[in-house]
UniProtKB/TrEMBL annotation:
Gene3D superfamilies: Vaccinia Virus protein VP39 (3.40.50.150). This is Methyltransferase domain-containing protein. GO terms for molecular function: methyltransferase activity. GO terms for biological process: methylation. The keyword Transferase applies. Keywords: Methyltransferase, Transferase.
Length: 307
């Protein structure tokens, strides 16, 4: 079924219907080049949600559980800094802006690596957590007004941000303007409607559990994410990913409705990453690059450069 929707905030959107859930419709939008929810929430609704509810209601245990995962996350975040350093011209400063920095894990890694770090985070709780770690953070939504007050940087990072934003292209255009020539943008989003998810749903008839319209407005894969970056004028340099959690589903471990099992399996993938990072770090990086090349991995991570 073809679906059309239009609003004064976001213009016209149209494309085939992919799935309906919780009163919303996900379409494969011909205008945007990626799947997203319609109708989209107003900007005022979105600001209220991320300031008042995202961590407090939607993820009440996130900041406390985050401490258990900091060392593991640091492995992946170091990979991202190393990838950027490999593409960054020598004459550019090592300055990073993390948009939607959450509890500040990425910036903490960057600071230890000698980068000049700044975060932007709309949640007061997460911003306070970041600030308590000695990392500079602006507690606000990243928008045109805020962007006008910020200095240009050589590296902009957004980890699990674009899926929550009703106008990703506008956000990326603001980020593009803040990048120095030769600078890098790293985007990380859930890799959704991926082959492993599709296989599990086809085999079992399970509903598309990753579709959560109240939190995730947009649904990307590697190709649609790279297409969006190219449309804002960036050159894609590299793909990456992390462990494809959906492999557990195809092994008979259905964590989608069992939070305890999900946490146990999460700890198993953490152990894998930690062992490889300790003993075979290059093999680990190459493994995830290879998986990204065929569209596997829980996250789609893409690095792109400004000319």
């Amino acid at each position: 079924m073809h679906h059309e929707w239009q609003s004064s905030d976001y213009g016209r959107h149209e494309g085939p219907e992919v799935v309906r859930k919780d009163g919303s419709t996900v379409i494969d939008c011909n205008v945007c080049g990626f799947k997203h929810v319609v109708p989209l929430p107003s900007k005022a609704e979105l600001m209220r949600f991320y300031k008042e509810e995202f961590y407090q209601v939607g993820k009440p245990d996130y900041l406390s559980l985050n401490k258990e995962d900091q060392a593991w996350r640091a492995i992946e975040y170091k990979d991202r800094f190393q990838a950027v350093a490999g593409f960054l011209p020598d004459d550019l400063p090592r300055s990073v802006l993390d948009i939607g920095c959450g509890p500040g894990d990425f910036l903490e890694v960057g600071r230890k690596l000698g980068w000049d770090c700044l975060g932007v985070e709309p949640s007061p709780d997460a911003a306070a957590f970041t600030r308590s770690r000695g990392v500079e953070v602006v507690n606000a939504m990243f928008d045109k007004q805020l962007a006008a007050t910020l200095d240009k940087v050589s590296f902009i990072h957004m980890s699990e941000v674009l899926e929550h934003i009703p106008d990703p292209k506008d956000l990326l255009e603001l980020a593009f303007d803040l990048l120095l020539p030769g600078g890098l943008l790293c985007l990380s989003v859930p890799n959704d409607f991926n082959p492993l998810q599709r296989a599990f749903c086809s085999e079992t008839g399970a509903e598309k559990w990753w579709v959560v319209p109240s939190h995730h407005l947009n649904y990307f894969d590697f190709d649609s994410l790279e297409g969006l970056l190219q449309r804002v004028g960036l050159t894609v340099k590299e793909r990456g990913t992390n462990f494809p959690m959906e492999l557990f589903l195809l092994m008979g471990q259905d964590y989608t409705t069992d939070g305890v099992l999900g946490r146990n399996l999460h700890n198993k993938r953490k152990h894998l990453d930690e062992m490889l990072a300790k003993h075979e770090p290059e093999a680990r990086v190459n493994l995830y690059k290879s998986l990204a090349g065929v569209g596997f991995g829980r996250l789609a991570i893409v690095f792109a450069q400004k000319s």
